[in-house]
Amino acid sequence: MIICPKCGMAKGVEADKKTTTCQCGREIDMKRVKLKFMTDSPLELADSVAQANAALMGGEPLPPEKKSRKKDPFYVIAERAKPVKDPIERMRVVARGLTDLKGDFGIEDVRKVVSVLGKDSAEDVLARLKEHNLIYESDVGVFRAV
Length: 146
Ligand SMILES: [Zn+2]
Fold this sequence. Notes:
- The chain has 2 domains: 2-63, no CATH class; 72-145.
- Helices cover 47% and strands 13% of the residues.
- The protein has 6 helices and 6 strands, in the order ββββααααααββ.
- The chain has helices at residues 42-56, 65-71, 73-81, 87-102, 107-117, 122-131, and strands at 2-3, 10-11, 19-21, 27-29, 135-139, 142-145.
- The protein is elongated and about 60 Å long.
- Zinc ion binds at residues 4, 6-7, 9, 22, 24, 26.
C-alpha cells in the first residue's frame, strides 16, 4: 500500500509494479514513494487501504477532502498563521482571525486552529496571548483580540 504524493490517498498496489495511477490522475513512480504497508493477502490490503482512507477523511464520505478543509474557516486561519515566523506574531494572527470570524472566541476555537498548526497547545497559546496583552477576556472563557 502506498500514499499518493499528490492527493494523499492510500492505494493498494502490487509490489512488482513499477508505476501506478492514482484515482486523482497522478502517475506514481513506485520507486519514489514509501511503501506504507505490505501484505500477501489481497483482503488484508483492501482492508488497510479502506482504513487508511477512512482515517484520512475523518470518517466522512469523499470527495473532495482538500476542498472541504480549505473551506473550514479554522483551517484558513491556521494557513494564514503558518508562514509567520515570529511566534507571538503568529498567535496574534490566530487571535485576529478568530475575532474576525466569530467576534468572541473560546479555547475550543483556538484548539481547532492550533491542531492544524500542530505546535502549541490551545492553553499555551491563550496564556501567551494574554501575557502579551494581545487578547482580553470579555467574559469568562471568552476572548477577543485587542
Ligand atoms: Zn492521488
